[in-house]
Amino acid sequence: MPPLGYRRSTPSSSPAVSGVQAAIPDGRAARGTLRSLALLVDRMATLGVSTPGALNDPAVAVAVRDALRQFTSRIRDSAMICKVVEGQFVLGADPVDRGLTRDDPLLGTLLFRCLSLGIGSITVRQGAAPGELLTLASLLSQPRTAGTPVATNETPTSLSALSDHQPSRELLRSWSVQVAPAELMTSRLETPAAGNPAFSEASDESAFSDASERDGLLHQAVTAFARFANAHDDLTASKAADALLEVLDTAEFRGDARVLEGIAVATVTHQHTVSTGPGRLAVERVFRRLQHRSSLDLLASRIPLLPDRTLLLELLSRAGETAVDVLVKQLMNANDAASRRAYFDSVVALDLGGTVLFELVRDSRWYVVRNAVALLGEMGVEQSDSAMLPLLQHEDERIRVAAARALVRLGTAKALHGLHAGVDDPNAEVRRMAAVSYGLAPTAAGGMRPPAARLAMALEKETDEDVALEMLASLGKLGSADAIQRLLRITMAQQSQAGEAPDKPREAWLRIAALEALVKARGNAVMPYVDQLVNDADPEVAQAAFRLRG
């Protein structure tokens, strides 16, 4: 059992998608990544590809695959953080020149699509799966009309958080991709004006149920909190707190979560105003009362319904691992994707509960284990690598996939070394993540690059193109002599040496990917080979060589 003060791995570099990996491209590379997305979107829109499933058509797949590979290659090297601000793309902190967007038809069309869909930001984590990138492109490639559902991806860390009764919080959310709308609904309990944190009749009625209004609980809550917030000395504040606690008792007894939420959020806001002044001790009394387990259960039930959960999470964080335990139980019992995503994000935001999650890794229910593993990976709990590694042998591939992704997120030497064997897993996504692990440097000191032999052998029998591309990219990142020789043999379509099994014929896409990996690994040192390939018999390879030579 790890200590409560567990250690985190590499911190997240983006608040939008938890765990966006660190390599953020420079301005030119970022624009190239955005343009590769624009090319993919344009290709899908031209061919009328409305969903990734349409790529089952071989003719469509051939037309789209090159654009997808270009975008995947870009994302393999760096994350993409793109915002749409005042009709202009902003990559990271750098606005894209309006003239460039105007003069480049691909970028201009992509910007128009983002504006028509009401998109405020697109964030893609480094190393996102090709399937996720297709889902993103399918969302961007079709015009949004009233009643048109947005793209979704139903996994424990993937959803479109839309519901019938409130505005969208996200247009798309997957393991590595988030598309957020231009304007998120602000909290219903705004900070009152003129320094007066009391409830107001106009703004707070929506926070309470109709039943509460009929029996007067709304009026009691508003009146009690007004007295509490307007107290100017400790004695008056203490007396006002007594009345407010009575309202809390009544609301809890009736199971009225909206009343509890209204008081909780307003109290947190009031605490910001009071700080260390008069009334601080009374505020702490209310906080302690709200941390009763039954109150926490009711407050947690409100999490999926709140557009802005910041203030409520601030209160829940005071309850430590008890609050995490409550949120995790709500996560496991949630019936819809939006609620699961809300609870998942809330646990990650609290950044607590390592002990609770470790216990769940051994649970008999597959979905509980999968969620716990995903949470530990997103939170960067380094000690969890030992608990996750045995899950790579689990019979349920959903757990193996979650464990592989989480181990890559941790990036410890033990996690990456244990994941290397996954290149032989029956599941393609596990193999892909295992291939990624070969090209990652361990975050902990003392980590060593693995030998390339096992990865090269797995490449020879790999049948999934996306996995093969990751394997080639990782061979280039390894950069060892045997890895470079393997890439050269694939690129140049060389015959096997005496005593070795003959090489199988290489398709153009495989040779091009190997060539790109070589150039990234050795740069000018491999230019003589690039020059030779400019006159290659395969026109696709020759064109790629010409592009790389320039």
Question: Quick recap of the structure?
Answer:
This protein has 550 residues and is mostly helical. It has 27 helices and six strands. A hairpin with a 2-residue loop joins strand 2 and strand 3.
What does this molecule look like?
This protein is mainly alpha-helical and 550 residues long. α8 (217-229) packs antiparallel against α9 (234-254) and α21 (428-438) packs parallel to α23. The chain has helices spanning 27-47, 58-77, 98-103, 105-117, 130-140, 201-204, 210-215, 217-229, 234-254, 257-274, 280-290, 293-300, 310-317, 321-333, 337-350, 354-360, 366-379, 385-388, 397-410, 413-419, 428-438, 453-461, 465-478, 481-492, 508-522, 527-533, 539-549, and strands at residues 80-85, 88-91, 94-95, 119-124, 172-173, 177-181. A 6-stranded antiparallel beta sheet has the order 3-2-1-4-6-5. It starts with 26 loop residues before the first helix and ends with a helix. The model is unreliable at 1-6, 10-24, 146-167, 185-214 and 495-502 (pLDDT under 50).
